[in-house]
Write the structure tokens for this entry.
Amino acid sequence: MHIAPPASAGPFVHGGASIARDMRLVMLALLPATLFGLWQFGWPALLLFAITLATVVVTEALCLWLAGRPLRPFLGDGSALLTGWLLALSLPPWAPWWIGVIGGVIAILIAKQVFGGIGQNPFNPAMVARVALLIAFPVEMTSFVAPVPLGSDAAPGLGEALAIVQGGAPLDAYSGATTLGVVRTALDQGETLSGILGTSFAPFSAALGLHGGSLGETSALLLLLGGLGLIFTRVIGWQIPAAMLGTLALLATVMHIHDPTHYPDATYHLLGGATMLGAFFIATDPTTSPVTARGRLIFGAGCGLLIYVIRTWAGYPEGVAFAVLLMNACTPVIDHYVRPRIHGRDRRGRALVGAEHPETRR
Amino acid sequence: MALFSIFPRRKTFDHGIYPVEHKELTADKPIRRLPFAPELVIPLEQHKGKPAIPTVRVGQEVVRGEPIAEADGHVSVPMHAPATGVISDIALAPTAAGPKALAIYLKVYQAASQRVLFGLERDLATLSREALVAAVQQAGLVGLGGAAFPSHVKLMPPAGRTIETVLVNGCECEPYLTCDHRIMLEQTESLVRGIELVLRATGAERAIIGVEDNKLDAVEHLRRQLPAHLPITAEAVRTKYPQGAERMLITSLTGREVPIGGLPADVGVAVYNVGTLAQMGELLPKGQGLIERVVTVSGPGVERPGNFMVPVGTPVRFLLEQVGLKDSYGEVILGGPMMGMAVASLDVAVTKAVSGVVVLEREDLDLAERKVYPCIKCGACVEACPISLNPSVLGELAQVREYAAMAEHYHLDQCFECGCCAYVCPSNIPLTQYFRIAKAINREDK
């Protein structure tokens, strides 16, 4: 018997969680909404999706190579792919190819690798790219199409799709803005809510996603399904989605009761825009959200509040990206002040006196 | 109400993890005796506190049970000869912790009897509290759950503190280990006697045996066996790691938290492991010393896993030869796979603190030895830490060697190295190792 094992100490076992596993599960949860979006918007959307994903992977590889870090483990963790995936889902489905390419480069190079790669970025890379694109290319980023499902007569063929992705889509194809955009414009022009929504908003079809919008944001129902799956498999906590959707719904309800002619109700806010994608897939990004459960509740509530404020009173019809980025900036502060109460200490960090459990749970 | 009884919510503590238990390998294996190893190695420091002082010379013959070293002061315990034989040497021997330490080498006589030949039977009923505490020290009893703190010290709470409740720790939350489970099933009488002695010595009003609910057979068995005239109850607590940690079990069973820097006595509690009390109940009436303990030998690297009564000082190599060590083994761990230590040499001896010898195969270790990624601040460790530290920030500080800040601002000293944070980390960061190193460096800097 040859015996020379190295000396070391536990734990010698591991639960099996890994970054790659979590990323794969998130992508799996995104799959239904993604496939729905691709079916709904056809070949141009599929090409844009592929271009964006290819861009992030190539950019990530280049950055890793420049930084002298090993390619395989870091490309293999799937984090870059997920960033590209989320970015693609938030783009207008018929946007030209260079929107995907520039967005992908911004997300990986500027929002992630410049800060030191995975785990180091203070802001959500996909949302940084989305906001940068929105500000730099407002026309391309707000030109939405009505759904033309694959197989329908109006759906562009592959050749047509190539032309669209090269930026040559006929202008009349862009049927205008999203529900959020339509309502915002009309409200600004002094119309009343019932007049506008009567023609452009039906909660049921909005939930299913049978309307124009970003590539993967239209089907609130499928996103909700995937998000609940992630909570169930414990890839994400329930705190951020619950606080974010709850705050948004609460504000919308209160304002709607206050003045129904100018403030749409909660279903409109929950089902419209990037709310579902943001609540379950964007705001829950581990790196850019707080580490404690209470911190996450605050973070989620902040996102919900900011989304409502931006959608209602600020210059843009949609505010999820801005809201998440603003709350990302607050994350270090939240983590600094919101800390768990340590066993045997009170909330202020002093030793317990009298030793009774301060929070009577049982 | 009916619904709640289908899903009973057992008492427990906050956070923690649910590692795979692997207890089925040995849970139904009764405690067996093994032959003596040809030579025993008895380290003089098997307990917290000062090492024992040898009272034997090289060449001296000793009988099984005879004292061979005496306690050095209050926080120390004596040693007894685990077998009949001759003292062959008093010299340095390898220990599980790493550095060599002084030990008594005992050459065991061939065909030496398993009977204990040294002891002084006595009537415990007439002993005063002080005499009882002294008897516990003379028996060389230490916490057999792994802490190895001298048992008699805990019987004497500091001035101004009284013990109201004795908690008997039968949780055994480490994966693979089943020795405490078997002790509760097979040594019930001694265990009850031990609890009775501790109740008398501390003056406590009641005792609660806390058992994880993966051992409900033990709970039911204890409930049937517990005499009605004693204030002892058995209670199931949730199977969750580290339920068996002293501070966690106190919170689970009493709802109280030991204040930072305090002792269990500060909340009126003393905690004893079931193995310790079973030995106390067994040894004290006979006036004998602690010379053996129950050890679970298990893991995928062992051919015939089981629970064994092992004489203190038995080399791990000998023990593994008895149960069959597979050639594919990766690490031999003393204790459980969460908090145990891998031995650097199989010549290390089983001491009073060793509750298990777990042999993992190479492939079992692969998961824990994968590539380490940067921290993604997912907070999984924060959710797992049973004392609610922030291992994520502590780990980042450790990487930039801010060891002092870890202690000053993030309560590093409260970490008891349970391993939950490293177990759940998706980036596979060896957080527990970091904290162990940081604490060692902070100790040196003081």
User: Anything to note?
Assistant: Residues 63 and 113 of chain A are 7 Å apart (CA to CA). The longest helix of chain A spans residues 19-67. The longest strand of chain A covers residues 8-9. Strands of chain A lie at 8-9.
